[in-house]
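Incident review: delayed structure delivery

Summary: a single-chain prediction request sat in the queue longer than the usual turnaround. Root cause was a stuck worker, restarted by the on-call engineer. No data loss occurred. The affected request and its eventual output are reproduced below so the record is complete for anyone auditing the incident later.

Affected input:
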Amino acid sequence: MCLFSTPILTFGAGWVFKLNIYRIVEHQAASAIRLVTDTQDEYEFIETELDSLRPALKQTSHHLLIKKPFSYPTPVPLDFSRRFTPPGSDLLAFYGSEYLTTAVYELAYHFMEFRIHLPAPSQVSEPRTAFSVEFDPSDGLNLNSHPKIDLIASKKSYEVSQQIAEENKGVPSILYPSCRGPNHELNVAVYDIQKLGTDIEQTQTLKFVYLHKQQSSLIFFEGESNPRHKVAWSEVA
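Output delivered after worker restart:
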């Protein structure tokens, strides 16, 4: 599989490769905080408390959705740690996937993770916003051929991947295969916001529908009446 696409010729540096990466986030018209608060005062209070824990947004011209992952609390709380953002560290990353399908499978895991063990209605539906952004992988750490790649891309543990992140502080990004995408496609963790374009592209609304009895999710794309994907919990967990 070719990891990089869209070659760009630059002066004196040979070929520089860039690609668009995809990310899926909470639907911007339906804040989770609003869903759990009854009044505007409650909403503003919780937002203020959360803002006090977040670092200031980077003073760049990047779109808010690009800057937001870099505004999470540090040191990273245990509940906010991820594959290449160890708990207790100051590493914050923008996670993305080379293909939208991969991002769908990654999000489907987290969408079901919080529902799979809870008594729930037979069906839960929530919107999400998908977008892409240009990414420059130059100087990034490519782990796709690493001898411990099975442990780095483990579905069950972040121990090895977080250790690698700590050992390689200072790299602008880490490239690694998805453990949940159907063909283990490329994922990236970007630490340096300057490696990302300033604007978001290809924005669209997706609807994730959780089927409790089937332990699976249907993913609908905006304007489509039939699901584009069906992801079973057993595929991604």
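Verification: The longest strand covers residues 123-135.
Action items: add queue-age alerting; document worker restart procedure.
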